[in-house]
Amino acid sequence: MRDILLLQANLRAIVTDFGWDWPEKAVLEHPKDEKHGDVASNLALVLTRQAGMPPRQLADKIASELLSRMNGEIAVEIAGPGFLNITFSPAFWQEGIGQVESEGKKFGSSDTGKGRKILLEFVSANPTGPLHIGHGRGAAVGDSMARLLRFAGYDVTTEYYTNDAGRQMRLLGVSVFLRMRELCGLPVEWPEDYYHGDYIRDIAREMLEKNPSLPDMPEDEAKEACYEYAMNSIMDGIKQDLRTFRVSHQNWFSEKSLVDAGKVEETLNDLKKRGLAYEKDGALWFATMQFGDDKDRVLRKSDGLLTYFSSDIAYHANKFQRGYEELIDVLGADHHGYVARMKAAISAMGHDPDKDFSVTLIQLVNLLRGGEQVAMSTRSGEFVTLAEVLDEVGVDAARFMFLSRKSDSPLDFDLELVKKRSLDNPVYYVQYAHARISALLRRAEDKGLILPAQSDASLLTKLDRAEDIMLLRTMERFRDAVEEGALARAAHGISFYLMDLAGRLHSYYANTPVLAGEDGELVQARLALLRAVRQVLANGLELLGVSAPDSM
Question: How far is CA 119 from the centre of its chain?
């Protein structure tokens, strides 16, 4: 990004000095093929009509002026019909080491977000059972997104929305109540859709141990007690699992608090007053088609019960009322149909549904063991909890794997594969790069080679081989990965970047005798380069919530 910003400033000045306007379609980008230089631009092609000359002739004119202004920092090649392929001098890339050394843990951070206040809601699983591996993927995505956005200058608050006011929660209470009766040897009639898991039996047993007279209570009172105890017990477990998973929520927001405070009814009445809600067939409908939805949506059913959508509208209105400028929801892929209706609600609130609201969908995780599918079902109880997965593979491996693909792509998570301590395991591959550099620096210290905190710029001129420049360039582009990830509201690009940087490090290590040779300055320069790469690896892993070990 530093290279593009520098070139853009100079090219804009050139265009202005020649009396032209900067064309909207002008692009400066890092070419996929590194033979095409560090930065490629189509400026001459899109400026040709305004300048009144052929694109290659114009490209020559721009290149000549650019070379003069940048005083030997670059080389320029005119390619094809008039593309500018620009390559920076080694000195430009060598400067990156000093920047990493001076910025340390802050290297790659920016003020891109300019303090924009974002409320990021994620996980928000109904407290009807322990978190499973699908919830884990959403937790990793949401938490890493928050880390990334803060690193890029956004003011991010994280929140967990507890659906504690609906039918599913009442069914949880009934399930524990019935299991408690069963444990007491009392007759039980099981409904079709009750919760089966062993955790329900454990909660019922716990309650009986604490209050043996529970079965003698009036049924409604006993069910209410089971609901309260089960919900709190499960929420405590969820919070513990998230802490273990290095996931932090600053706010815990209760749906029931909205309902009890009359905020849902208040929101519905506001929609009716503005002609956006109407009665039909005994139900209350929201006119979402006015805002681009494919059909209007029910807010209150004919039996008088509110839909989840009603509470969701009130909840999102509350978020804006609390002063947030942008809302991000991280939801399961089964909520795909929810997006259009929620965007309609955001529009009805007077906000831009594209700028002020976004939904990140989390596709399913296919849990495998040695290639064999592991079944997961909350009601049947045949699921593997997130806690069990973490116990088996560890937090680092789980988080990295969850973030190794785009969140809207299905993910195969093989428990046996992610436990392997080999370079075939992505998280091991990246962590080993950090540990490998740490081990090398320890060996250097044992030989009396201790680097200063800030390297001498003249020393770094030794790093002029193609392999050195490649590693320097890749290290520098951590800034791009952060910027692009923040703007896309997605952290998976950081894992892609780390895999690339680790791969180049492993190749460099294998082909460069860092500590060998009689040129002490070259040894020091290479150590400084690797120490900077280690810092960038650590910064990237921190954004993913993954540790950066010094030994493995």
Answer: 14
Question: 352-358: long-range contacts at Cβ-Cβ below 8 A with a sequence spacing of 24 or more?
Answer: 353/291, 355/326, 356/325, 356/326, 356/327, 357/316, 357/326, 357/327, 357/328, 357/329, 358/326, 358/327, 358/328, 358/329, 358/489
Contacts of 318 (CB under 8 A, 6+ apart): 258, 263
The b-or-e profile of 19-47 (16+ CB within 10 A means b, else e) is: eeeebeebebebbeeeebbbbbbbbbbbb
Compute the C-alpha angle 254/125/214, nearest 5°: 70
Taking only the tens of pLDDT, the chain with its 552 residues reads 789 999 999 999 999 999 999 999 999 999 988 888 999 999 999 999 999 999 999 999 999 999 999 988 899 999 999 999 999 999 999 999 999 999 999 999 999 999 999 999 999 998 988 998 989 999 999 999 999 999 999 999 999 999 887 778 888 999 999 999 999 999 888 888 888 888 899 999 999 999 998 888 999 999 999 999 999 999 999 999 999 999 999 999 999 999 999 999 999 999 999 999 999 999 999 999 999 899 999 999 999 888 889 999 999 999 999 999 999 999 999 888 889 999 999 999 999 999 999 999 999 898 888 888 876 554 444 557 899 999 999 999 999 999 999 999 999 998 888 888 888 899 999 999 999 999 999 999 999 998 999 999 999 999 999 999 999 999 999 999 999 999 999 999 999 999 999 999 999 999 999 998 789 999 999 999 999 999 999 999 999 999 999 998
Helix residue ranges per DSSP H, 216-286:
219-244, 255-260, 263-273
Amino acid letter, 445: E
DSSP one-letter string for 55-76: HHHHHHHHHHHHHHHHTTSEEE
* Cross-strand partners of 155: 117
By the 8 A CB rule, do 148 and 543 touch? yes
DSSP 105: G
Quickly list H helices, 104-183. Answer: 133-151, 167-183
Closest C-alpha to 286, from 304, 346, 295:
295
Q: In what order do the strands lie in the sheet with 297-300?
A: 277-280, 283-286, 297-300
For the chain, count helices (H), then strands (E).
20, 15
Cα–Cα distance list, 64 to 47, 51, 67, 122 (Å): 16, 16, 5, 52
Q: Locate 56 and state its tokens.
A: 């290659």
* Helix segments in 245-337, DSSP class H: 255-260, 263-273, 308-321
Residue carrying structure tokens 């300048």: 51
| Rounded-to-integer distance, Cα 77 and Cα 297, Å | 58
Work out whether strand 411-414 and strand 365-369 pair parallel, antiparallel, or are unpaired: parallel
Distance CA 224, CA 147 (A): 39
Phi, psi of 380 (to 5 degrees): -75, -20
CA distance 3 to 25: 19
Residues 328/313, Cβ–Cβ less than 8 Å:
no
